[in-house]
Structure formats: C-alpha cells, structure tokens
Amino acid sequence: MMSGNRGWVYWLSWIFSIGLVGFASYIGMQRFSLSHEAAVEIELQPTIVEVQLPKGEAKLPSFVGIGVQAILQRKAMLNTLIPSRPRTRIVEYTVDQGDSVFAIASNYGIQPETLLWSNYDVLKDDPHSLAPGMQLKIPPVDGVYYQWQDVDSLQSVADSFEVDANNILTWSGNRLDLTNPQVEVDSWVMIPGGQREFQQWIVPVPARGSAGVSSGIYGGGACPGGYDGLYGSGAFIWPVNNQTLSGNDYWSGHLAIDIGVVLGDSVMAADAGVIMFAGWSSGGYGYTVAIDHGNGYQTLYGHLSGVSVACGQSVRQGQLIGLGGSSGNSTGPHLHFEVRLNGGFVNPWYVLP
Known about the structure:
Layout: H1 4-44, E1 48-50, E2 69-71, E3 91-94, H2 101-107, H3 112-117, H4 120-123, E4 135-138, E5 143-147, H5 154-160, H6 165-170, E6 188-192, H7 215-218, E7 257-260, E8 266-268, E9 273-281, E10 286-292, E11 297-304, E12 306-307, E13 314-315, E14 320-323, E15 334-341, E16 344-346
Parallel strand pairs: 1-2
Antiparallel strand pairs: 3-4, 5-6, 7-15, 8-14, 9-10, 9-13, 10-11, 11-15, 12-14, 15-16
C-alpha cells in the first residue's frame, strides 16, 4: 500500500495528464475549425483576376493558389459585321418634290445617264420631264435596264447597246441559263455597261442679227430676231445671290446647272447683251429668258416665275431679267442656267467666278 503522500502525488499527476490531453485536443479542434472556415471562405469568395491575352495567343497563364479562379472578360459586340453584297435587284422609287435626275442617281450610286436610259418609257431621255409622283426604276449598276422585245436576240441587244453579249449573259441578276439562255418577251433585263445616244432637249436661241425661232413650235417666248445692242465683257457673274446647286449638275444629259432659289428671288443678267428669248418655252423650261452677249456667248435662264424683259431689249450685267420659280417641268424652285459658246455648251462652273 502507498503512503498518503505518494497516493496524493499519483492522482495529481493523472489529473494533470488528463487536463493536458484535453487542452491539446481543444487547441487542435480550434485550429482545424479555423482552417476549415478559411478554406470555405476562399471557396465561396474567389479572387477575380482580369487577364489581358496578348494578340494572337490563346494560352492562359497559370496561377498558384487554392481556390483562385481566373475569369476572362471581354466586351460584348452589339453590332454584327455582315459582308456587304452588291445589289442585283431593281429598286422602285417615287419621285418627290424637289427631286432631280442627278440627285436621285447620286443617292443610289449610279450615273444620271443610267437613270434616264432605264426609264425611257416615262422620261423620254429628258431630265426636265421628272415630276412628283412619277415611278422610276433604279438599276443596281450602270448601264441600261431594258424590256425584251419579240424580235430581240442576245447578240442584237448587245450590239444595240454597245456591249459584249457575255455582259448580259453572265450578270447574276439576270439569272440566265448559261447553256441555253432564253429571255421571255416583255421581261426586263439588265445590260451592264450599256449605253445609247441622248436626244438633247434644248431651247434654240438665235444669235443677234439673225432670223428668230418659231413661237408656234418653241413657245410664246421665242423672238423673231434681227436685233442689236449691248455687248458682253466675257466675264460672268452669278445670276442669283445663291451659289449652290438645287437639282441637276452639269452632265451629258443636262447641259446646265440648277441653282437653288426661293420663289420670287431676283434673277439677273450674268453679262450684258440683247434679249433673244423672253416668255414661255414649250420645251419644258417654263418661263425662260435667253441673252445673246454678242461675243459668241449666250446664256439661258429657265423655270422662272415671271419675266421682266422683252425681245430685243439691251440689258446690263446684273440687271433684273426675271424672278425665280418652278415653272415648266420642275419638281421645285431652282434656276436652270445654261452657258453656250458658238452654238455649243459650256459647263457654267468654268465661267462663273
């Protein structure tokens, strides 16, 4: 049997040992709990890393660390790029107030000649015949849009419009069978690159001292001729205060420029001379004035709302000759201004300051 002192020490050592083991267990459990919570926190709250990939490389950089996620970010593209394809179908267009052959053609990326040639049934090659409400066919490419006749053949049509027959045969919009091309009568065919001569629509203006033109044919503004008077300097001024286009520019089917005006604007003589046409023109120009300048030049002012001069009258440069308007074949107010030299036409841009 143990003595009293040794027994007490024995049991005290056991109690201390059990307490130490319990304390160690408690510390271990606390550390395990903290480690577990940290792991959960990392897993639930990942670190976001923005990665900018170098151009032309698809490899992701590697990351070290538990629970770290690499998230690639890119901006959304709201617009999808679709390759543009050439148009092959005809567009139907309704003429509006203020339209011109030149402006319509420019808006659709074709030449004004193409618009005239493809609408001969309504325009008759005259750009001044354009009128609001008129229905036009807008071809997809330059050339002639043609309605097939019963006497036509691929070669005859090609020869008529001065193109190779393959231009018609191979153009995708015509949808012809390359092995056996057959075109139905009255169907419409596009002739890319096709062309034909214009029928020019002009008001004849006699030179001073010569016989005039027939008022029965060309309208009441035609002058009998045989006049003389002031001579021009050869240096022109703008006939109106505005110096911008409002309609057709100068081109092969429109040998003039259309200058923007407001109804009633003053129209002035671009140079001194003698009036050789003053009044109504039956050629689509409406109220018209023409001046012979005595030096080979003549100028013509069309679509006026009123005329302020008379046949044979001498006018000075800058003198009032009429008022701006939209008479005759016109879709809106503008001044049709022509410059002629020795019977031919000159682009007004070449002589205006």
